[in-house]
Structures are given as C-alpha cells and as structure tokens.
Design goal:
The complex is a heterodimer of chains A (149) and B (273). Chain A is mostly helical and 149 residues long. Chain A has six helices and no strands. The chains are: A mainly alpha (149), B mainly alpha (273). At the A-B interface, helix 4, helix 5 and helix 6 of A face strand 2, helix 9 and strand 3 of B.
C-alpha cells in the first residue's frame, strides 16, 4: 500500500456533510500517517524493520534539522507542517475527552494534500524494502500463475 | 499550568510516595537489624539463647529481603525510564532556548541527592552488620552466620546500583540546570519565535503574538505558538491556511532550517468567543 492511499482515506472520511467525530479523528490520523510514510521513504527508513530510525520523534528530529533548501519540494512542504500534523494526530488519537473539531481534520488533510501535490510528476512512490517472509515449514509453495490468467 | 510543570509534578508526586526504589529498600529497616545484631553480640546470655535469637532475626531478614528485592529491581527500571524521559525533555528545551522556568527541577535534584545519601547510608550499615557477625560467628551457628552474611551481601548488591542510579541522575540534572543558567537567546526555538513573530505581525488580523508552550507528546517537545486573532478571521480556515503559507515562506527565506519549528495555534481575542 502506498502513503497516498492514506490521504485518500482521510478525504473519504470527511466527504459526508456531517461525519461523526470518530471519522474526523481518523481523518486527522490518516493524513498524518500519509505524510509520515512519505517522509520515511525519503529518508530511506522502514518502520517495519528499523524502528530506531523510523520512530516518530527520530523522523521529526531529522526533518526539523534538515535545510529546506536542500530538500525536494514535497519534503520541504512536509517540513513546514509535520509538527502540526503530528500534534493533531496525537490529539485525535489520545485526547478523547477533548472534542476534536472538523476544522482540525480539514487542516490536516489540506496540509497533507499540499505535500502530495508537490511531488514531482515522474516520482513513483517507493515500495517498501522489507523482503518477503520465508514460507512456513511444511506448507506447499503456491504454483506460479499461468501467463494470461 | 504549563505541560512542562505538569510533567515534573508527575515525577515529584512519584518521589513523594513510598513506592520508589529507595522508599521500598528503606522498609527493610536494616539499621534495626544492625542494632539487634549488636545487642546479641553484647549480651552475656548463654550461647543457646544467642543462637536462638540470631536464628529468629535471620528468618525475618531473609523473608524481608526476598519480599523487597524483586520490587526494588523493578522500581529502579521504572524510575530510570521516567527520569531519563524528563531529562531528555528538559535538556532539549534548554538547548532550544526555552528552559523550564520553575523550581521543580531543583526539587527533583533535592530528591536525588537525599536518596543517594540514604542509599549510601544503607550500604554502610550493611557493611557494619557484616563485620559484627564475622566477629562473633563462633558463638552462633556457623550455617546461620553464613546465611546472614549472604543476605546482607544481597542487600549490598541492591543498594550499590541504586547509589549509582541516583548519583548519575543527580549529576545529569545538575549539569542541565547549570546549562539553564546560561540562557540561550540563540537557541533554535528562540530564533524561530523571532522570525514567526515578525511574519505574523505583518497580518492585520493578528492582534497579538503570544507565548510559546511546549506540548510533550514524546521525547521531543512540539512548540506551539499562540496567535491571538479577530474572531471573524478564525471562521475563514482557507484564508488562515493561505496566510500561514506566506508566514512559512517568509521564515524559510530568512532561515530555511527553522521553517516548521513552531505550530501555530489561533485563538480569538479574549471575551470574543
């Protein structure tokens, strides 16, 4: 799955005229993760295998320390809003006793859209580098698909 | 109350309870055993009576050590994790030019200093008790004397790392506080504040650029800048985002490493909401 799909999810959740609060919170959560994974790809860190390098505060610290002039446009845009996205995601996910307004999720989605909109047209989102897991002992390997099937 | 103070208050509440490593180890009341051993040694009673009394306190002491030892070890880990987290945040805020301005850090160093002293005292008492036992072990059962010496060694093995734990954090927090005394106007967040304030004040809808408050979501604080605006401006989110873009562009032009350092939080003028 690619990070952009998380942004599309966030937009779908805010599509109805009056989404419930849980959808609003999930939209803010999803918008953050869309950008977080994009930034991880830029830094070539995989949260699945290298949490020391890919945890949220490491990624934030690294992005904060970077010089925007030396970053691709979309990552420089991410640098502008990453702390805001992270804070909104924390409030959406953990501060359940404090109402989370729709405007907050809309801001988060707008910021994330700005990031993805600045990706170069020819840039393909990178597939995760995690290798395929080995087969479970005793299981038959599945037959290769026939051409044209 | 600021989040930084709340974070430190949580720690100070922990230190005020008895459920700290030094609090639990103190419940072993090793001074009392040291005193009882001295009494047994001094008494002119017959060997049998001495042996019986010695056995009795040995059983009590072994049971107490068995009860407290795992808890002390667990509490050292918990306390270390909490202190480390706070140390990282406090030092980071000082480095960023936004030090925690309260008396709480010095209250914490008081706790660390007293705990180190208390644990050193327990170590000294355990050593003293061992010497007493060694000097009259022929008058009590040899097996019991050895068991008591082993139990006291076990207490020393708990107390020694605890001394090092308190000493380490005391030194680290003291160092941090010394750094705070040399307040840095050139800290990253202090510089970002000046640039963002400058940019925001060019917007007629901004009435006041307020203070920065750290949000402590994890080991790296997020710094939120409170911006007081017209109430009507607050209802136009698209305009706010458009203007915010200009603010970030301004900051990026002045110092491209500082853009995004602050989160802008808009509030209406007081009384307008």
């Amino acid at each position: 799955m690619q990070p952009r799909a998380l942004l599309q999810l966030a937009k779908r959740l805010l599509d109805p005229p009056d989404p419930p609060e849980e959808d609003i919170r999930c939209a803010a959560h999803s918008a953050y993760y869309a950008v977080y994974h994009l930034v991880c790809q830029h830094f070539k860190v995989d949260p699945q295998v290298d949490w020391d390098a890919a945890n949220h505060w490491e990624v934030r610290t690294r992005l904060s320390a970077a010089d925007a002039r030396n970053l691709p446009r979309h990552i420089a845009e991410a640098k502008r809003f990453f702390n805001s996205l992270h804070l909104y995601r924390v409030k959406a996910d953990y501060h359940l006793n404090v109402p989370f307004p729709r405007e907050g999720a809309e801001d988060a989605v707008a910021w994330a859209e700005g990031v993805f909109a600045r990706m170069p047209a020819d840039k393909k989102e990178v597939k995760p580098t995690t290798p395929e897991p080995p087969p479970v002992p005793g299981e038959q390997p599945s037959a290769p698909a026939r051409p044209g099937s | 109350m600021l989040q930084g103070d709340r974070m430190m208050d949580d720690m100070l509440n922990w230190t005020a309870s008895n459920r700290t490593p030094v609090g639990v180890l103190s419940q072993l009341n090793i001074e009392q055993y040291d005193q009882t051993i001295a009494d047994i040694k001094r008494r002119q009673a017959a060997s049998a009576a001495k042996k019986e009394q010695f056995q009795k306190i040995l059983r009590e002491f072994e049971a107490a050590t068995e009860r407290f030892a795992p808890e002390v070890l667990k509490l050292i880990e918990i306390e270390r994790e909490r202190l480390m987290r706070r140390l990282r945040v406090v030092c980071r805020m000082i480095e960023d030019g936004l030090p925690l301005r309260s008396e709480r850090p010095s209250q914490l160093t008081d706790y660390l200093r007293r705990s180190e002293a208390k644990t050193r005292e327990m170590l000294a008492v355990a050593g003293r008790a061992k010497r007493k036992i060694s000097s009259f072990k022929r008058k009590v059962d040899a097996k019991d004397a050895k068991a008591f010496l082993n139990a006291l060694t076990r207490v020393e093995q708990l107390a020694q790392p605890l001394v090092e734990h308190y000493h380490y954090f005391n030194e680290q927090f003291k160092h941090c506080m010394n750094e705070q005394a040399r307040v840095r106007d050139d800290g990253r967040i202090a510089r970002a504040y000046k640039l963002y304030k400058n940019a925001l004040e060019q917007n007629a809808s901004v009435k006041l650029v307020g203070a920065i408050e750290p949000e402590l979501t994890d080991a790296v604080p997020i710094y939120v800048l409170h911006v007081i605006v017209d109430e009507r401006y607050l209802s136009d989110r698209a305009k706010i985002r458009e203007d915010e873009r200009k603010v970030h562009a301004f900051v990026e032009e002045q110092d491209s490493t500082l853009v995004g350092a602050l989160v802008l939080h808009y509030e209406p003028v007081a009384g307008a909401a």
